[in-house]
Design goal:
Elements: H1 3-23, E1 33-40, E2 51-54, E3 57-60, E4 66-71, E5 77-81, E6 88-91, H2 92-97, E7 100-102, E8 111-114, E9 117-120, E10 128-132, E11 155-159, E12 169-173, E13 187-190, E14 193-194, E15 205-211, H3 214-217, E16 228-233, E17 239-254, H4 263-276, H5 285-293, H6 305-309, E18 314-326, E19 330-341, E20 360-372, E21 377-393, H7 400-410, H8 435-440, E22 443-461, E23 469-488, E24 493-496, E25 501-504, E26 514-535, E27 538-553, E28 560-573, E29 577-588, E30 597-608, H9 613-616, E31 621-635, E32 653-661, E33 666-673, E34 684-697, E35 702-719, E36 731-752, E37 755-772, E38 793-795, E39 798-801, E40 825-827, E41 842-845, E42 852-862, E43 865-875, E44 878-880, E45 933-935, E46 938-949, H10 952-955, E47 962-976, E48 995-1005
Parallel strand pairs: 1-7, 13-16
Antiparallel strand pairs: 1-4, 2-3, 2-5, 5-6, 8-9, 10-15, 11-12, 13-14, 15-16, 17-18, 17-48, 18-19, 19-20, 20-21, 21-22, 22-23, 23-26, 24-25, 26-27, 27-28, 28-29, 29-30, 30-31, 31-34, 32-33, 34-35, 35-36, 36-37, 37-42, 38-41, 39-40, 42-43, 43-46, 44-45, 46-47, 47-48
Helix pairs in contact: 4-5
């Protein structure tokens, strides 16, 4: 989107705010009753900044905790809210009798959303963690999953790349418990339904809940083993209309772009590498001098392709308006949001009348209505729409940014100038993809995704049958369509030689016909009975549902269907003793009839000791609960992944070549047997056990949640476990994995007068172990993979560099790995047979999935100012850093970077930091070894936000209840052991790096 359009959008936002302020009637103009009160904590200390809401407005407590609020009637209820404290609703006439209102700190009464129900924190018996939406609403970026990083115990979010609009990430809950073709990440639901959630507007999020053990996830049946993440959106609340306006602008900067050497250093190192390989030097001293002094930039170019291709920063704006309110009969919520980004590539805007940058335009609309149609029937309707449009330079590709980064990595600074002296695009036979031409002369493509979501749920009271019984149901439909428009073209480059000009490639017209797309549809249906009843000190809450979910895609594959029954029984005795039983009976068409449905039960127990007589009146213990759970969860495979089994229990045939028949031996087409029918195909089954404690001390000043978990997964599908003589692939469900660890969170929070502050740390420690994987026989123990963590790194062990003083023929023979010479890597001979081969391969490093991940957060609020900070980190993790990111002169043409200046040279001994240089493959040096293994641990300053809220006494005349301005940083600083790449980005370097955001914004409420 052009800058003028951005200005217009922001102007419209502010025009709406101005008009709304003008037309909204003032509270003072109404007939009201004045209510005076005071808000304190449990220690009778005044609470500053608490929000007091009535039917006609709201006010804020001053530094002494006092407030003045108007009501229409003494019979109406006031709502009192403050972060870190329980929300209270109290009748106005009660405040006139005792004007002091006490708020309890903590969040034990906060309703936490679970699968098909909600519970207060005290009632939960499973392993569940959650955050409120306002913790992440101002965090910039478009992929909401990244905003959860470091905030929730048990959840690891790996931010893979920073490409505008994509910002890809991978998620794990409590590490890895499988190595098979099954789903490796958690199931993510939006308002209880699978849908596309990556680009959801952050200001629509009410809460995020992470379900980790069997008790909390078993109801999701075949997709429950990897955990479940629930994104829950805001809904309308009873009261007058409330309008929230949120606006922010961010400056986005790529982190740790590649640092390639200039032309002089490139040519010098190339000569050295060629000499190491026995070749003549390519560049003369005159050439080197010309590259160094830059006297002839056309014949001796020195182009920094990174700077010429990628901008220092781009600008992204986000605007959102949401409106809510309602009566006892109906409540509503409506939200509209828009995000725009100008793109991060260095495009020549004067070159075309159309855009060729990587722009982003993202629009969200979200609305819901909750209606009590009559005394028995309540209906909820949710509608969401999203349009995500991304512009790409040149021909469409799923990884176009990687293609551009790959060209940067593969184009030396002296390959050619950007343009020749006559203005034509420069290039050579070896380097045809002039990056200026890629960005400006290859046309453009547009990727547009339109998503529509609709959900209707009902609750029909059946108390005429028995009190507490109701009929519940839900139907949801989600459709998203991807449309791709390819308007690409090709361009020619010109190589200027002494007496001639060589034209390479063709200048073609823009393609005007190339369009295609994809479509996905999700259907989800639930229908059943709910029974909730209290019998004295006993409370029973049960639900039984029939459910069916279907996913279809525009492909040659059939729709994917899950169906079955699920439910739960919850029991509470005297608010002290808790018991839950959850289950799912679910099947899929991907499994044979005789083995199509699985049973996934789970049981959990809780004991709130703080409700017992010996602790009930304790001044030190505010709450103390023990809980435990055990159950079975499932994990199937994604049939749309071509590497996974698809209807594996059916015999599979495919067309093949021709067979000769008849006198003339004409070829006739035929079929051949593919994978054999496999009636043993089955889902993974994980037995999960969890023991946990929730505690609060000293009036909820100290909060602790801690869990120990143990998981054992079996039925992991293994491909190729059969002998090759079998003649076809066959999946065997014989793999087993053990996964165990601890996670938890410790929080200290305190309010003292106008000062409110907290410090919190969450951490997860987890280890996996492969118990069975049908491993082939290994001659030595160190070669065995079974018994080690999933993803453990195996390779050769670096011993030292070969030097010019070595008699290489007398050392262990490494010729199987490639020829060697001084400066090459020498590996350890583990079995002492004087030959370096597969028998010398051992475990050399940990998995790329960290065994420890954590977050440290702190915040304070004082006299309208607030500061919040989050540090995120991981440890016990190793990554291979190879490929274009590390290697020099890839295929004799690639780039060289700063690391290569530390290469081995005669006389270096063992002080070098890189092997000797080569223009060839240097095969010996590039096998998997701990030389290329790096500790991936890091600590990152993930977010820092500083805000100021203008006192309500200054804004209430304009009917503004909240006016907050803030500035923030995201991915600000990183402390790690890798200086040439971001520790979260792709380890081969071909991927757009993670980005840093610096943001300014405001939040306004009417």
């Amino acid at each position: 989107m052009k800058k003028k359009t951005l200005v217009k959008v922001n102007a419209l936002i502010w025009l709406f705010v101005f008009v709304f302020v003008l037309v909204t009637p003032s509270v003072k103009g109404q007939s009201t009753i004045e209510i005076l009160g005071k808000v304190t904590n449990e220690n009778n200390e005044p609470l500053y900044g608490a929000i007091v809401k009535s039917s006609i407005g709201q006010s804020q407590t001053d530094q002494n905790g006092n407030f003045n609020c108007g009501v229409k009637s003494l019979n109406e209820f006031l709502t009192i809210q403050k972060d870190g404290y329980e929300t209270r609703k109290i009748e106005a006439q009660l405040i006139t009798k005792d004007n002091t209102i006490k708020l309890s700190s903590g969040n034990s009464a906060y309703a936490v959303t679970l699968l098909n129900r909600s519970k207060t924190k005290n009632e939960i018996t499973g392993a569940v963690s959650y955050i409120k939406g306002d913790e992440v609403e101002n965090i910039p970026g478009t992929n909401r999953m990244n905003s959860l990083s470091g905030r929730i115990p048990g959840l690891w979010v790996n931010h893979i790349n920073g490409m505008i609009g994509e910002e890809a990430s991978s998620l794990r809950i409590r590490g890895q418990n499988s190595f098979g073709p099954s789903r490796s990440g958690p199931t993510v639901l939006l308002d209880g339904v699978i849908t596309d959630i990556g680009q959801i507007d952050p200001y629509d999020i009410e809460s995020v809940t992470v379900l980790k053990d069997a008790a909390s996830t078993a109801m999701y049946g075949l997709r429950s083993s990897q955990g479940v993440i629930l994104i829950n959106t805001k809904r309308g609340k009873t009261g007058d209309i409330q309008v929230n306006v949120n606006s922010q602008v961010s400056m986005i900067e790529p982190l740790r772009l590649p640092k390639f050497l200039d032309a002089y250093n490139y040519a010098s190192l190339y000569n050295e590498a060629a000499a190491n390989d026995g070749f003549d030097q390519k560049y003369s001293q005159d050439d080197l001098d010309a590259y160094q002094n830059g006297s002839n930039p056309y014949t001796y170019p020195n182009v920094n392709w990174t700077d010429e291709t990628i901008k220092d920063y781009s600008i992204q704006t986000r605007n959102n308006i949401n409106i809510s309110g309602g009566t006892e009969k109906a409540t509503y919520y409506f939200s509209v949001g828009y995000v725009s980004n100008s793109g991060l590539f260095q495009v020549d805007e004067s070159a075309n009348t159309y855009n060729t940058n990587s722009n982003l335009s993202l629009a969200n609309i979200h609305t819901n209505v909750d209606v009590q149609l009559n005394d028995r029937l309540k209906v909820n309707v949710d509608l969401k729409a999203n349009q995500d449009t991304r512009n790409n330079p040149g021909k469409y590709s799923n990884n176009y940014e990687n293609d551009i980064l790959g060209t940067i990595y593969g184009t030396p600074p002296l390959a050619h100038p950007i343009k020749n002296e006559d203005g034509s695009l420069a290039g050579t036979d070896d380097y045809k993809n002039n990056l200026y031409g890629v960005l400006n002369n290859s046309g453009y493509s547009i990727w547009k995704k339109t998503s529509m979501f609709a959900k209707t749920s009902l609750d029909y009271d059946l108390d005429f049958i028995t009190d507490g019984l109701s009929l519940v149901g839900m139907f949801a439909f989600n459709n998203y369509n991807v449309h791709i428009t390819d308007r690409s073209k090709t361009f020619a480059v010109y190589q200027i030689m002494d007496t001639d000009t060589n034209k390479i490639g063709l200048d073609t017209e823009m393609d005007s016909k190339n369009e295609w797309g994809d479509n996905r549809r999700y259907y989800s249906t639930e229908l059943g009975l709910r029974y909730k009843k209290k019998f004295g000190n006993h409370t029973l809450n049960t639900t039984f549902l029939l459910d069916r979910q279907e996913e279809s895609r525009r492909s040659t594959q059939l729709p994917r269907v899950y169906q079955g029954m699920k439910g739960f029984i919850s029991y509470s005795n005297n608010n002290k003793y808790l018991a839950d039983f959850t289950f799912a009976v679910q099947g899929s068409e991907q499994f044979p009839k005789e083995n199509r449905y699985g049973f996934f039960p789970a049981v959990s127990l809780g004991w709130i000791l703080s409700e017992e007589g010996f602790l009930k009146n304790s001044e030190a213990v505010s709450m103390f609960k023990l809980r435990g759970s055990a159950g079975i969860t499932g994990n199937d495979f994604d049939p749309y992944n071509n590497n996974n089994p698809y209807f594996a229990y059916l015999q599979n045939y495919s067309e093949t070549g021709s067979y000769p028949f008849g006198i003339n031996t004409n070829g006739d087409g035929g079929f051949r047997e593919e994978s054999s029918a496999n009636n043993a195909i089955i889902w993974e089954k994980t037995h999960k056990y969890n023991a946990g404690v929730d505690a609060a001390f000293f009036n909820n000043s100290i909060l602790i949640t801690a869990d120990y978990f143990y998981e054992k997964t079996n039925n992991i599908l293994i491909d190729g476990a059969n002998p090759k003589i079998f003649g076809t692939d066959f999946w065997y469900p014989i793999g087993e994995v053990e996964n165990k660890g601890v996670d938890g969170v410790l929080t200290f929070q305190k309010t003292k007068g106008k000062l409110n502050f907290f410090v919190s740390m969450n951490a997860t420690m987890v280890k996996s172990k492969i118990l069975e994987q049908a491993e082939e026989y290994r001659e030595h123990d160190w070669m065995v993979r079974t018994g080690n963590p999933i993803g453990a790194k195996f390779g050769y062990t670096f011993d030292r560099y070969f030097t010019e003083d070595d008699d290489i023929s007398s050392l262990p023979d490494q010729s199987l790995l490639g020829s060697v010479q001084p400066g090459d890597i020498k590996y350890k001979n583990l079995n002492g047979d004087m030959v370096i081969d597969e028998n010398d391969i051992s475990m050399i490093g940990k998995s790329s999935t960290p065994e420890v991940f954590y977050g440290i957060s702190a915040g304070m609020a004082f006299a309208g100012f607030d500061v919040n900070v989050l540090f995120q980190g991981i440890s016990e993790v190793d990554n291979f850093y190879k490929g274009d990111l590390n290697y020099e002169f890839q295929n004799g043409k690639g780039n060289v970077n700063e690391r290569h200046l530390g290469r081995w040279q005669p006389g270096s001994g063992q002080s070098a930091t890189y092997p000797r240089l080569s223009v060839g493959s240097a095969q010996n040096n590039r096998v998997n070894s701990d030389y290329w293994l790096k500790d991936g641990s890091f600590l990152r300053l993930k977010t820092l936000e500083i805000g100021y809220s203008i006192p309500a006494s200054l804004t209430e005349k304009l009917n503004i209840s909240k006016f907050r301005i803030y500035t923030s940083g995201y991915n600000l600083f990183t402390w790690d052991k890798i200086d040439f790449a971001d520790p979260e980005s792709a380890t081969n370097g071909i991927g757009f790096p993670v980005t840093k955001y610096v943001t300014a914004g405001l939040n306004i409420s009417f």
